[in-house]
Structures
1.
Amino acid sequence: MKYLICICFYISCIFVLLYADDILDADSVKNNEQSNPYNIDYNNLDSKYYPFIVSSGKFYDKDIIDIIERFDEAEKKNAFFVGIMYGININMFIPSLNIGDNTNLNGMQYVVNPSLFGFHAGYQKYTSKVLPINSFGYQVYIDSSVSFGKNGLFFTSINADVLWDFFDNKSVVASLNMGIGIGATKITGLKMEVDNYEVAYRINLGISTRIIKYSHRIGLYLGNLQGLQRGLMSTTITFGYDYVF
């Protein structure tokens, strides 16, 4: 009888211990959920997030999960792109903006050519450590523009633009871009002989809409360029289509 009581007591102790373990495990899970309600796996968190978390100076779980989600959305926008453009160029000479030697040009002049074609290719990035991720980015690209016939424009450049996505519902993204390009140009049609290319700069401005699912982007772009030798200018207005990889 004494042995039976001991066995029963031993078995009871085992059940009590098992029950206590279950309670402790449940409390541990509950406490973990309370301390990490967003279930962030810090032990296996990709190191690519760390610079953005540190630079934000915010270390609460709700802030960190927001940074992670914004980074993931921004990473989807990082892409190469190629595109074509069509529009017009307005070649002009403005005496007050003259930076070259144009003694044979008197007064303001301008000519128009409605057959401007262009091509560009580059890369866009929304996970810069300098700009706010996802809503701001930048693009670097090369481009070439040429118009046929009289009043021609020939321009080839490398460009860098800042991007601002002022509308983004994860299906359609509307963006503004602004930047500068440096290259070579030849502007014809004005009352002077132009036989060779000259170094030029261009101010870029545009608005575009991208359909994420189909990788298509269409836009309206404005450019204003000027040669640094003769000081001739050209304004371009183009419609463009890009395929974003």
Note: The first strand starts at residue 79 and ends at 93.
2.
Amino acid sequence: METKASPLADRAARMRFNRAMREKGVGAKVCGKCFVVKGLEAFSFKSKSAGSRMSKCRACTATDTRRWREKNPDRARQWRDQNRERVAEANRRWYMQNRERVAEAHRQWCEQNRERVAEANRQWYMQNREWKAEYDRQWRQANPDKHRDKAHRRRARLAAATIEPFTPADLYADWQEHGLYACFFCAGPAEPLHVEHFYPLKPADESATPGPHALFNLVPACQACNLSKGNREPWAFLRDALAERGIDLDACLAFFDVD
């Protein structure tokens, strides 16, 4: 069966059609390659100041460019080498105009190629272990609060605990509001500062409810109290810690009639 040629394959017919579209204010034109009527957004600008568009649509232009590069690899490479700055600037402008599109495409690709991404990351890490270790060390020194918060959130995820979002600034503001300037357990100076989960993320008693990673469950502690408390039940630890200083926690709570 013989295929009929498109009436718009004739250049004069296409020009008349496109002129009629412009006169009627319709945002469309015919592609000079595939002869399909498409919206103006499917055509790259020929001159933005004049508002004119290319005669071929973006899809056809991309196909022709790819075929030309495949047939002329040396000439394509030579042109890129001679116009590095021009290519870099064009790529930068395109990226700035399509940042969300690039991010979404990258996310989808990573989602579809998890094993490949994991293998590439593993190989990169093995080849750059010393550099990565030094970079991480410098980052931890420059961002102690962020590092501490990151470590706590990771522990919370591993323990499948509830995580409520907050920033280090929120935490310090909460401590200031409640007058928490010293170690919560021994009232000594919290130096070096340890941020302790009052109710542990993973209690020693498996039947106990894990504490959340949330503002109300974080208290300042000194290094000795934090390390000795571990994942013990907090009130039992506090009772023992005060007893070492000659203070009976139960008697204090009974005095204030606190249940």
Note: The chain has twelve helices and six strands.
